[in-house]
């Protein structure tokens, strides 16, 4: 090593180390999610399936909190695998509540609800299941797969079946409801099912949710970074929109237990008609309804008040003057329809089929709006 390098290397090293306080972390993003409330309920955005270095994720728990704040979420849970600990040599014998505690500390000064959770991780037919709203993850550890379910239930948990169609456990890519799961459902130890996990949507999982009266869920199951997996691709992570009576942890749990959810992955919305219909209805607001002068053509300006691009098909008796009968209203934007009503009306009923939304496999909701004409 030359004397000059010997001089420069320590200085360069010093320059490369910046104290943490020199980097104010940003909790804002250009792409926060936003959805309207529905009558009687708040629409809270949740992602209740995420990993950190405390299981097989690649980030410290505080990063999950910052990602959620940047994306504008209301509720998250860090659900570390109980039985899969690939970082055990670096983080030996971790307290299974630690991930939650660190996230809670980071979220203290912010408006983000942290839910205590864990992923019960077994091979098929038990599969992977998240228990959220638990009080002690350590108490869920047991060799008998029935124990974590019964203990979580006693702790007051909401429990859901993760990625039921995962091809590593279901090579045909279709979920199979096992006797083990049927028993958990009958004992009140399994309440929900993911129909959307990462970028995957399972119609068969939706059918199981409807048949077994389970809560419909969508989650990111993030292991790396939300920005790299979703935001950089122009997407938001999958979410479960929960219709809660207030903005509290207990209200979120009550809503999940009562199945008041819609799983949202960008333009794909999946939920029971009971919640999907009012949610879509609140998402589109007609901001203008007036006739083009000297015509019977009604101009309707539709505003999309969500962060999802929404696809619709005209199902009215009236046809359009300008638009295709199938049209998309981009997230946060307006779209103008010109409806040929054939005569001047005081009011019309706008009726559209939501082609990106499913209330059963292959079944789209039909939404109506009563529009007074200006
Ligand atoms: Zn899993
Ligand atoms: Zn997972």
From TrEMBL:
Domain of life, source organism: Bacteria
Signal recorded as keyword: yes
Domain Polymerase/histidinol phosphatase N-terminal: 46-124
PANTHER family membership: EXONUCLEASE (PTHR42924), POLYMERASE_HISTIDINOL PHOSPHATASE N-TERMINAL DOMAIN-CONTAINING PROTEIN (PTHR42924:SF3)
Pfam families, per the entry: DUF5001
Protein name: Sb-PDE family phosphodiesterase
Segment forming the signal sequence: 1-22
This protein's UniProt keywords: Signal
SUPFAM superfamilies the record matches: PHP domain-like
Species the sequence originates in: Robiginitalea aurantiaca
